[in-house]
Write a structure and sequence with these properties.
Keywords: Aminopeptidase, Hydrolase, Metal-binding, Protease. This is Aminopeptidase. The chain has three domains: 170 residues, no CATH class; 218 residues, no CATH class; 258 residues, no CATH class. Helices cover 42% and strands 17% of the residues. It is built from 24 helices and 20 strands. The protein has an eight-stranded antiparallel beta sheet with strand order 13-12-11-7-6-18-19-20. Strands 1, 2, 3, 4 and 5 form a five-stranded parallel beta sheet that branches. Helix 2 runs antiparallel to helix 8, helix 14 crosses helix 15 and helix 17 runs parallel beside helix 19. It starts with 10 loop residues before the first helix and ends in a 13-residue tail after the last strand.
């Protein structure tokens, strides 16, 4: 299939683009606003001019002919404004913008500038339509200021009333921009998910000369040391090693369909998500997926507030030039987020899926490469950062629920699968190459060995009605997890014997807890979830529901509670315990200890290095009716809880559209004990060591 363009080029669009570009070039010379505002509009106008210049070079084909040095220079010109030292003193920083431009408009203008950074990748993709509408919005906002010039006093300052009018008009302009162009911003993620014809990224992966790093600058994304060094490192590996890495990834995807008894032959597309720099591996994966009859789709990471910029890396992504920038702006959608906007967005989502119904039906799900090893990040909570109101938090929950329902209608969860694998970044430290090699070993451990030992653990767990977990040392975890009753223990089990398929690497047994009777305190002294650090994270459960949450990151209890509520509970007032698991990958744990990288492991690996508890949906979300069997032939019956049972009567109450794993590392773990109906107590782990007969080998890396 040939390339598809998102828009139809036209004389009208060209004229709009030219008019906007010319008008923006005039702004710096007008100097008609109070100095502080003139400086802002001049800075952003100059930025737009840079974008226009890159776009013209893209249209003429010059970008593909740049040297590596030219590509690097362009990249620094665009993204240097986000470098920590520069960012703090610039208008992209909401704290500086509010200090300079005032509380009335400073935050909004900082948000607008941050969203306009999406013009950079738009120019590299040749998106004249996006460049035009962003330029027109910027001019409209500029007009909100110039319209208030009449009556400004001789000191060239606006009155409070004028600033209030400007603020209202800017907010309206932004609101209607996102409302009116929802058909672009809400539709395109669906289109790029299901249609391989949108091949901007695929063509870079498959057609570029990977023998040097020039190709990295074709994306229009930030390219830093991690991307450059990763590409260099992978370039030096032999072809057979690259093929083996890709094979682990693609086979995990295929096996994911097989173990859940889903027919992969009914699927035609797979979405690869990967970090820039991994093109050699991804190119091989594309070929291997083609051998399975699957075409690859690739889309860009979120680059606007509309798409959720700052809330995790998905798609084709690069490391962040400044994670404080991401955190400062991650809730910018609050500037325009209301019920009408949400309903409009849901309407476009539904209409887009309907137009692409046949393609959505043959979409197989994502195959994801994650990375780890960035310097641990603890955000500064700036008062100038935009936050959602309570009403908006409720809307966020509603929006996530309804969009989840719509997506599941066209891409049923019981018919698709996924796989995830993780590798270290060069920034993990001087032992990067050795850690990378050890990670490859962890990702390819003998799953049959783990399968046998995990079955022995499951045989003990299935004897109980509850599991009691306690911490040691500074960890004060004391929690009891209730298990579903087994009607026929000879044919049924509560725990899935999880090997390396959808979640690579191997190493866990997990269940969906019975909520009633699941109560206690979950505590971890330090944990990284996503890209955020939590110190002394604590969740209290009663009958399976979170009743309180806190951490020790900030000075006030309110800040700590809000931090956990926003980033772990995802704005819900409470969440159920959706999963309880025992990780068995002590080899991964030992690797983390040997290299001192426990605080840098992604949850994908960290969850295998101790027991973990997930808040949110179960692991069987939208797939509860699909029977799941362990290798011993027993059916895993713990696929439900009292919320998912409501999916047929009221789907909006059945799912929470989030799932966050929290792991207790072995060194903070005291005991895991199975409590039986007859009063027996059978230890699985005692003082951090496995004690089930036949699992002794798991303790070797713990010595």
């Amino acid at each position: 299939m040939g390339s598809i363009c998102f828009y139809e080029p036209s004389e009208e669009l060209q004229e709009r683009y030219d008019l906007a570009a010319e008008r923006i070039r005039e702004i710096p010379g007008e100097h008609c606003l109070p100095e502080r505002f003139w400086l802002y509009f001049t800075e952003v106008s100059d930025f737009v001019g840079q974008v226009q210049e890159i776009y013209e070079r893209q249209r003429s084909g010059q970008l593909e002919r740049r040297t590596e040095e030219e590509g690097k220079r362009d990249n620094e010109a665009f993204y240097g404004r986000l470098a920590p030292g520069t960012y703090e003193k610039g208008m992209l920083n909401p704290a500086h913008a509010v200090e300079t431009l005032g509380e009335e408009v400073g935050g909004m203008l900082s948000f607008l500038y941050s969203d306009m950074l999406s013009m950079i990748p738009a120019a590299f993709e040749g998106r004249q339509d996006l460049l035009t509408i962003w330029s027109e919005l910027f001019l409209q906002v500029y007009g909100c200021f110039t319209e208030e010039l009449e009556g400004a006093d001789s000191r060239w300052e606006f009155t409070p009333e004028q600033l209030h009018n400007i603020s209202r008009n800017v907010k309206d302009a932004v609101y209607w921009f996102y409302h009116d162009y929802c058909e672009i911003f809400a539709a395109e993620p669906v289109m790029t998910m299901v249609d391989p014809g949108y091949d901007f990224f695929t063509s870079i992966v498959m057609d570029s000369d990977l023998s040097d790093n020039r190709y990295l600058y074709r994306y229009g994304s930030f390219i830093g040391e991690n991307e450059l060094r990763m590409a260099d490192f992978l370039r030096g590996l032999p072809e057979e090693k690259i093929a083996a890495m890709a094979r682990t990834f693609t086979e995990g995807y295929r096996i994911g369909f097989a173990v859940t008894r889903k027919d992969i032959t009914k699927k035609k597309t797979v979405k690869i998500e990967f970090p820039i720099g991994f093109e050699r591996v991804v190119r091989e994966a594309v070929k291997q997926f083609a051998d399975m009859g699957l075409s690859v789709v690739i889309s860009r990471e979120s680059v606007t507030s509309f798409a959720g910029r700052g809330n995790g890396k998905r798609g084709c992504y690069s490391t962040s030039p400044n994670r404080q920038f991401d955190y400062d702006h991650k809730d910018d959608r609050a500037y325009y987020f209301d019920k009408s906007f949400v309903e409009r967005r849901l309407e476009v989502l539904r209409d887009t899926f309907e137009k692409h119904r046949e393609q959505a039906a043959v979409y197989g799900g994502p195959a994801v490469i994650e990375v780890f090893g960035e310097t641990p990040f603890e955000p500064v909570n700036k008062p100038e950062k935009k936050n959602y109101s309570q009403k908006q938090n409720e809307l966020n929950v509603y929006h996530a629920s309804r969009s989840g329902e719509i997506t599941n209608t066209y891409v049923p969860g019981d018919a698709y699968s996924f796989t995830i694998i993780a590798f270290p970044l060069p920034s993990i430290g001087p032992d990067f190459e050795e850690i990378f090699a050890r990670t490859v070993e962890v990702n390819t451990l003998d799953y049959t060995l783990y399968q046998r030992m995990q079955q022995k653990i499951i045989d003990v767990l299935d004897q109980g009605t509850h599991v009691h977990v306690t911490g040691r040392g500074d960890n004060h975890t004391d929690i009891t997890v209730a298990l579903h009753p087994l009607r026929d223990p000879a044919k049924e089990t509560n725990f899935e014997n999880c090997v390396a398929d959808v979640n690579i690497p191997v190493g866990e047994v997990f269940t969906s807890p019975l909520l009633e009777g699941t109560s206690g305190v979950l505590h971890v002294t330090k944990v990284y979830l996503g890209e955020l650090c939590y110190r002394d994270l604590e969740l209290v459960f009663e009958d399976g529901m979170v009743t309180s949450c806190t951490c020790g990151n900030f000075a006030t209890e309110e800040e700590n509670r809000n931090y956990v509520t926003d980033n772990v509970l995802y704005h819900h007032k409470t969440l159920p315990m959706g999963e309880f698991a025992i990780g068995t990958n002590t080899t991964a744990y030992r690797m983390a200890r040997d290299f001192g990288i426990a605080d840098k492991l992604p949850i994908l690996i960290a969850e295998k290095t101790g027991p973990h508890f997930a808040v949110g949906d179960t692991c069987y979300s939208h797939s509860e009716d699909v029977p799941m069997y362990n290798p011993d032939g027993k059916e895993v019956i713990a696929r439900e809880n009292r919320f998912s049972l409501m999916r047929k009567e009221d789907p909006s109450k059945a799912y929470f559209n989030c799932h966050t794993d929290i792991t207790i590392p072995y060194n903070e773990l005291k005991d895991i004990t199975v409590v039986c109906e007859d009063g027996r107590q059978i230890p699985v782990i005692r003082d951090g060591k496995f004690v089930v007969p036949g699992t002794e080998e798991l303790n070797l890396p713990l010595e």
